[in-house]
Amino acid sequence: MIDTGLRIERSSNPKQKPDPEQLSFGKVFTDHMFVMDYTEEKGWHDPRIVPYGSITLDPAAMVFHYGQTVFEGLKAYRTNDDRILLFRPEKNIQRLNRSCHRISIPQIPEEAAIDYLVKLLQVDRDWVPSAEGTSLYIRPFVFANEINLSAVPSTEYTFMIILSPVGSYYKEGIQPVNIYVEDEFTRAVRGGTGTAKTGGNYSASYIAQEKAAEKGYAQVMWLDGIEKKYIEEVGSMNVFFKIDGEIVTPILNGSILEGVTRMSIIELLRDWGYPVAERKISMEELFAAYEKGKLEEAFGTGTAAVVSPIGQLNWKEHQMVINDKRIGELSKKLYDTLTGIQRGQLPDPFNWNREVNE
Ligand SMILES: *Cc1c(COP(=O)(O)O)cnc(C)c1O
């Protein structure tokens, strides 16, 4: 490891680890967290691992007023032989920097950031759960904390990494979900912030999610913001369709978040010899394929669920039931393969995993 000047202050009263059977998502945190500051004079400085705890911010800290904040989400897994694996962490750190760039936050040195993350995992290694389906969720995030109400980019920032043991996403086995195709609200438009993992994209999507939930749907499918015609994402996941043997996913058009799961699924499918098209796909086209019986499978992809099959799509007055609301054969194979690689139960032919040494 390079000398990054990292300072480590260990917790003097480690917490009780949660019951692995009772784990939910993002409510329990480990004993330590990573913190690093940025000022204009010093750049990024004072990287440190300290006991997990509250932080104090001035009410005029810019993040509260103008939303300059970005985040990432990835997982560490414990293998059957007690190794700790990270899945393509460099992709998340690179994306963190792309998100930072979009909302005028200074770049973070990538190599160093991965080293800090690995070091934090070494310190809290015992927190990576081992029960079937569990993992340690990793949340890096950056926020503006200059004390200033002017609407200009902050000159001061904090980068933090916190860790949370999480339960299996599919406690009762994989259940395909009902999706409402949203034709009123927009998640993102080209030229906007849709390609950045920034908090504002999420708060702007809740209203549609609430509307879908009231109607009895688990999630929304987002259409493009201009014509309300082309499919973009599903909830906070990327989306794939199997149509007449071909796998289609919306092309990264400037309003879609580039998922690490999405890119890994595409690489797997191409390696297996499936035709994969990254292109524009409209709801009309999808519905026409459905009516001809050619829409074979549909699923969302993201770090949390890995693969989330879509059982039903509601679009205007149409109810499209996909694959009898059962998980498709290809969706299942993708889920099993990707989670198998991530958990070290299958070979890792693409060298995606990064092991965290003791
Ligand atoms: C994080 C996210 C995804 C999925 O990205 P992964 O890297 O696969 O977890 C997809 N869409 C949106 C809007 C997201 O925020």
UniProtKB/TrEMBL annotation:
The keyword Amino-acid biosynthesis is annotated on this UniProt entry: yes
Residue spans of biased composition, Basic and acidic residues class: 1-20
UniProt organism field: Halalkalibacterium halodurans (Bacillus halodurans)
Pathway listed: Amino-acid biosynthesis; L-valine biosynthesis; L-valine from pyruvate: step 4/4; Amino-acid biosynthesis; L-isoleucine biosynthesis; L-isoleucine from 2-oxobutanoate: step 4/4; Amino-acid biosynthesis; L-leucine biosynthesis; L-leucine from 3-methyl-2-oxobutanoate: step 4/4
Domain of life: Bacteria
Keywords: Amino-acid biosynthesis, Aminotransferase, Branched-chain amino acid biosynthesis, Pyridoxal phosphate, Transferase
CDD domains, alphabetized: BCAT_beta_family
GO molecular-function terms, A-Z: L-isoleucine-2-oxoglutarate transaminase activity; L-leucine-2-oxoglutarate transaminase activity; L-valine-2-oxoglutarate transaminase activity
Listed name of the protein: Branched-chain-amino-acid aminotransferase
Reactions it catalyzes: L-valine + 2-oxoglutarate = 3-methyl-2-oxobutanoate + L-glutamate; L-isoleucine + 2-oxoglutarate = (S)-3-methyl-2-oxopentanoate + L-glutamate; L-leucine + 2-oxoglutarate = 4-methyl-2-oxopentanoate + L-glutamate
GO term, biological process aspect, one: L-leucine biosynthetic process
